[in-house]
Amino acid sequence: MLTDRQRMILNAIVDDYIRSAEPVGSRSISKRSDVGFSPATIRNEMSDLEELGFLEQPHTSAGRVPSIKGYRYYVDHLVHFGGESPDDVLKFRSYFAERMTEREQILQQAANILANMTSYTSIALGPESVNHSLKHFQLVPLNAETAVAIVVTSTGHVENRMIPLPPGVSVTDLEKTVNILNAKLTGIPMMRVTSKLYSEIGDELSRYVDHYEQVMSMLEHSLPAGDEHEHRVFLGGATNMLTQPEFKDVDKVKTILDLLDETPTLSKILSPTQSGIQVRIGTENEHAAINDCSVITATYAVNGQSLGTIGILGPTRMDYAKVIGLLDVVSRDMAALLSRWY
Amino acid sequence: MLTDRQRMILNAIVDDYIRSAEPVGSRSISKRSDVGFSPATIRNEMSDLEELGFLEQPHTSAGRVPSIKGYRYYVDHLVHFGGESPDDVLKFRSYFAERMTEREQILQQAANILANMTSYTSIALGPESVNHSLKHFQLVPLNAETAVAIVVTSTGHVENRMIPLPPGVSVTDLEKTVNILNAKLTGIPMMRVTSKLYSEIGDELSRYVDHYEQVMSMLEHSLPAGDEHEHRVFLGGATNMLTQPEFKDVDKVKTILDLLDETPTLSKILSPTQSGIQVRIGTENEHAAINDCSVITATYAVNGQSLGTIGILGPTRMDYAKVIGLLDVVSRDMAALLSRWY
DNA sequence: GTTAGCACTCAATGTCGTCGAGTGCTAATC
DNA sequence: GATTAGCACTCGACGACATTGAGTGCTAAC
């Protein structure tokens, strides 16, 4: 479809634009050491590339800027990532190792480090708890009226909530209840815990425990509801958006930052449609507010089972090579770390 | 110090400026229904007020703007808050009641609602856990190498962390350990738990449990370290900063938003030097980055014991009356809600 | 096929004059 | 003596305009 020279020029233009954020002209391309043509020749090629839809001109007497299609071609055919940034990889690994204290924070840390290293915004989706199973259930009474219900899943995830204690239920009844639950529900997938509670625990409870109905209602409130099995979302470097010249307009940036505050929207933006690395450029993103942003996502998986996604949000003029290379490493490293618990 | 008329005029100027964000001139003050003087008279008074340091002039032919001293006088002597905004109070209470599901989220919700209602940024400092005592300790083994350690405090706060299990320690030993800890440490203030662990639990453990040293080391990692008893910080409406005309400069706003990402700094900014409501205007704030912001804080207390702080960060040109009134109500309501657990 | 040369375009930048909101002073008025 | 009308003055905001220069497209020469 494109001649070798066109590809080379397109590549040079995208590279230049990514660095400078300014429309690139024929002269500056011609001056590059890897290009041996005069500005006039470059101009002719640029004109062709524009006609083909790979480049755009902000106005008549300005240089060219890559179009969405141009970026797409660049990402699909021109950029070569991988072994070329061992520095970044080392840097990431040393940061990451240093901060890896708490497991719950792996994702938060990864997002922060990525944001730092790229100067873009980073988003991480945690593993869905849908696939976890119940490991342990506990009720800790705080006083006569309130208790804390704690649920531990097979992956070490801990959820807790405050619940009112039904009046008249004795401490021994509570203990019996907890024992029955642990005996019967341990190992059951979280998704099916609530239904199992009714189908199998109900009878058992009614036999051994007084105030059966109140206890059941209490238990129902103690367990995570269905809609809480969602991805957990971690955000890093949200304010990096402000450093990008394309977002110097306060209103535009406000729209995006507000978006970043909405967990469900974030989750939607990031959700991959395929495993591995995925690049969505500009209007390829469904959400209109980020139509001049690009999103690069990488899924991480253990034993072939996809656990979550980590991604970078930046301007369409993004350093694709660097980000893709980094995300590749990060997703693998995270999978390796998480494999301990899955 | 100031004549009645000067006070009235200063009040009018601050009011106007808070609403318009633009230097206010003598004419616009003269036109207000509650002021019966000609622009010339106002001008003379304004000139005096400027000489006294309550007003400033951006440039010769512009109107006047309140100085820090002017705001200070306004807050101390002119603004009357309290009964005058029952609408806001009702609005807040209805929002708050609606969202009050999870206790851990009280502060987050309060911060969000406040930010929403004021269009400023809201920060809430949670109760320090220093004063809590241990309620329950639990170890949940996930597999042969890892376990989850869970600590519940007397206030229902749950902390959990992933720890490696020392090799060779049996499940029964773990159970014994947990039982001893719960028997000996329940009711002990969190601050003294670690020292108590060595002074009293050590001997006991060595008598009943194998691999005593490893278990002790494991327990040490299981308990929250001293530096984790800090305030927890919740932030609401950080992006509201972007809507204020004084922060239309991207760089300035970036400095502030970056600040808001640093929990310790936030905590320092908000920490009150006295109980009740406190207003810090502009350079009265120690942190240079917010020298043209004002911070209004309210402490909330149960039984005379201060638990935490909730505050608002906005431009010096802030609606002090509204914010102070709201914070007063919010801090009381929060105290009432939290009193259930303290 | 490539490139030098040249006319052309157009945003960015700078200069200048106008406008108007606002001040400060003085003299008239209450 | 306090207040106010009147007026000259200041200075940023804004629009009109000319200038500049980076960049293009086209044509003709290489």
TrEMBL record, chains A, B:
Which keywords fit this entry according to its UniProt record?
Repressor, Stress response, Transcription, Transcription regulation
Domain (Heat-inducible transcription repressor HrcA C-terminal): give its ranges.
104-324
UniProt record similarity statement: Belongs to the HrcA family.
Q: Which residues form the Winged helix-turn-helix transcription repressor HrcA DNA-binding domain?
A: 1-72
Q: Which NCBIfam families match?
A: hrcA
**Keyword Zinc applies:** no
This chain is encoded by the gene named hrcA
Protein's UniProt name: Heat-inducible transcription repressor HrcA
Q: Which GO terms describe its biological process?
A: negative regulation of DNA-templated transcription
Entry keyword Transcription: yes
- Output one GO MF annotation: DNA binding
Q: Per its UniProt record, what InterPro entries does this chain match?
A: GAF-like_dom_sf, HrcA, HrcA_C, WH-like_DNA-bd_sf, WH_DNA-bd_sf, WHTH_HrcA_DNA-bd, WHTH_transcript_rep_HrcA_IDD
Q: What species does this protein belong to?
A: Paenibacillus cellulosilyticus
Instruction: Briefly state the protein's biological role.
Output: Negative regulator of class I heat shock genes (grpE-dnaK-dnaJ and groELS operons). Prevents heat-shock induction of these operons.
Provide the taxonomic classification: Bacteria, Bacillati, Bacillota, Bacilli, Bacillales
Taxonomic superkingdom: Bacteria
